[in-house]
Structure formats: C-alpha cells, structure tokens
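Record passed on here:
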Amino acid sequence: MNEYKVPFHKSELLEHEKNSLTRYLGDIVCSGIFTNGEYLERLENKIAEISNRKYAVAFSSGTAALFCAIKALKMEGMIPTTPFTWIATTNAIEVAGAHPIYHDVNENGLMDMPEPPPGFTQKDIEEMYGGIVPVSLYGQEMNYDAYRLYSLLPMVLDACHSINQLDHLDEDTVFDIMCFSLHPTKLFFAGEGGFAVTNWEALAEMMRRFRYHGLDENKLRRELSIKFSMPESSAACALVTMENFDMRVSLQRKRIRKYLESFSFYAGLADKVRVISTLDCTMMTIKVEEGSRDELWSHIRKAGYCADVKYPDILYNMKSVTQDSYPMTRLMTRSIITLPCYPTMEDRDIVDIVKTIAEFFKVI
C-alpha cells in the first residue's frame, strides 16, 4: 500500500494510450511473435524519426544500451565519467572492460571536461583516454562545447534522464551514440527497456550484434556478449508512449512550469532554495543548504509527498572514493532533493508541495 498521497512517480498511460496498447498486445498474441517482430521495428523507426537520427536500436534496459554502445565503440583504458550518477553508468563501463575515472561536477551536477593541459596534442589525448561517457543529469542541456576539444575520442552520452530532449538533439553533436532509458520512472516507458541512437550504420550494426549474443546476420559469433533484446510486449508499450511524444512532453513541461511559478510566489524562498530544473528537464530538482537537506526531505515526506534524493552518495560509497574526493559532487549529494513530477500530477499537489517547503523555511 502506498503511504504517500502523492507518489514520486506514476507510470500512467493516458486513456487513448491504454486502448492502443490493448490493441497492440492483441496483435502480438494473435501473431504468436513475441520477440524480434513488428513492434520492435516500429518502435525503432519511430525513435529514429523523432530524434532525427538515422538509426535507433532498442534494448532490454538503458544500462544494456550503454554497455552495447561502449562495446560497439571499442572503448578501452581510462574513460572519464561523472561520480554523480546512478551506478549503471559506471557498471556499464566496467563490465565492458574499461576503467572509469571520475571528474567532479559543476554546481548543477553536470561534468564539464576540463581543457587539456597546455601543449597537449590530439595524439596525447587519445593516448590518455579511451573515450568519454558523460551524463545528462535530470534532463539538463549539456555544454557540448566542453567536449569538442576531445571530439576525436569515441563518446557515448548517458542521456537516460533526457528522453524529453529526443526531438531537439544537437545536429552537430560530438557524441557518437546517445543512450536513453525506458524505465517505468521515465516520461516514456516500456515496462523495462532502453535504446540508443546514432547516425553511423556500422555502430548501429555493432550494437545489434552485441544485443544478440555477439552474433552477426549469419548467426556466427563475432563478439562475446549475451542477450539484451527487448520483447515485443515492451516494444508495444514504448511505442504507445512514443506515438504521443509531443503530448507527453507538453504535459510534463506544464508540471515543471507550475513548480517554477509556485516557487516564485514565495519571495523569501529564493535565498533558501535554488531550483536546478528548467522547462526542458524531466525531473524537478532543488538544491538547499547542506545542513537543512535531510530535515527538509523528512518534512516533505511526513506531509505525504514522496520526495527522493538523486543521488544520496557518490556512487554508493565505492571503495575508490574517499571522503575528500570530488568536493562539488559531495556537496550535491548532501543538498539535492528531487520532488514528485509526472504528467498526470495535479496542479494543487504541486502548489501544496511548494507551500510545505515554504512552511519549513518559515517564509509564509
């Protein structure tokens, strides 16, 4: 039983989406094709169309997409990434056989690659790193210019929070592959699933190979891998939400806008709360003073609103990370709160959540 009057997220289909999914699942049952069928192909074509990319490859999870993307690009050696992310990013790098090294984040939780040391050539950079895997945290826009100095390196963007930006990806992107999640907590979901997009046919083919046991089109094993396929039922669920891309993004944007309006209503809150999220974000994340975060978090939850902390510690206390490592990341883990935000959320609940925060800081 849910103890909160407002959950952190609801994986809800709109009424016409439910009708479409019921029809699609009936088609699958009647066809007897439960994997590698029509709906997987339709989903991949729809994603490619929305993203304005030539190729989309669907997987059993966003983590699987990351793993197969890293393997397709043959990333080896040291891979810069962020310590402020879900553990899946680091796991995908390590399981793929590479070694993650961490760069601290900025005040919004994003990793900006530092400029290469003076005198460094592209050859020096290529010898130092085997690729880069940054994360688009909370659906924030990336600073693409920070990565152009490393453009000769293979790059995968972990965009698992950023599926709402799928229709306006940077056409001149430095990223070879972008990976997205279709987890139930996302704006678009497949039950479980993920996908990757690219403009390179060879990379799409390699990802498909790693998706299916490392086998080529003739069923000969060319790579060592296991199966990461998305079943037809999951593809049908994801397709239903993707077919309503503009509507879903618009609904989520209205929720974000309502939060921004509600925070601006309390003039005194500006000194206590910094809203990280913008209209293009998928999540509503705020930053407060380090000493007040846990108490405020508890206060919000006791009021019946399932706020969360993303993320509560640096890669869940990995042994390689000390207390003095990555000071900005450490600060973020102690000052961030992510508030409930989903398309069918009521405006009055958003108003009440912000009022609860204002009451905590005594600015009413």
Summary: The chain has a mean pLDDT of 93. The two ends are 33 Å apart (CA to CA). The chain has twelve helices and nine strands.
